[in-house]
């Protein structure tokens, strides 16, 4: 994570910018209850995807989406960042050309836009979103809104490999913040028009066995420690206890279905 992005309001227009956070779950009603109680999210239906889907809002701003996995379909319960695209079909073709895979789509999500779910060369999942004009949509959230996503970070073995794939697909500028030891660790910041929008953290052999690379979403909160306590009360688990970082106090948790996410005190962001 970088200092500058914590206060940055993501543009939903620039290609490559993470523009949406979405979670597919087994029990949509239970997930809505958990995130409502945790972040205060309110929900409204749509757009209809392969299964039921709701959009979450906080303080009058859209912040994320929750969908229910279609019975019989095998998908991981995990938060996915969606990267903005002017042409989802062209982006899907680039993903394949660069060695990634496209698992779902591209397909229309009602009249809201066109989407795809893909994976990079190491298997980390992410989404592609080509928005359509929505005159009745709520404004996007900023880092000052508790419950809003404020940073996206890829946890992978080799940051250099991912740091080549994503710029090739989305046109990012890639800036290195930490050189690591040459074994794939280190940190790569992804920039759009000079603004940091996401990061790639190479952890080498520290990536847990049995778990492949994954994208982590950070949500803004007023108090990290209180939020961590509340997560446990609501049936979730705390994976990494609250700790101070140069960018704020951070904790990593999992919801009742096991989807991991991080929280950061937005007052410190």
Describe it.
This protein is an alpha+beta fold. 16% of the residues lie in helices and 42% in strands. The protein has helices at 28-39, 88-97, 159-170, 224-233, and strands at 18-25, 42-45, 53-58, 61-68, 79-84, 101-109, 113-119, 125-131, 149-156, 173-178, 186-192, 195-202, 214-221, 237-245, 248-254, 260-265. The protein has an eight-stranded mixed beta sheet, with helices on one face. Strands 10-11-12-9-13-16-15-14 form an eight-stranded mixed beta sheet, covered by helices on one side. The radius of gyration is 17 Å and the shape is globular.
What is the structure about, briefly put?
By secondary structure, the chain is α+β, with helices and mostly antiparallel strands. Helices cover 16% and strands 42% of the residues.
SSE arrangement:
Layout: E1 18-25, H1 28-39, E2 42-45, E3 53-58, E4 61-68, E5 79-84, H2 88-97, E6 101-109, E7 113-119, E8 125-131, E9 149-156, H3 159-170, E10 173-178, E11 186-192, E12 195-202, E13 214-221, H4 224-233, E14 237-245, E15 248-254, E16 260-265
Parallel strand pairs: 1-4, 5-8, 9-12, 13-16
Antiparallel strand pairs: 1-5, 2-3, 3-4, 6-7, 7-8, 9-13, 10-11, 11-12, 14-15, 15-16
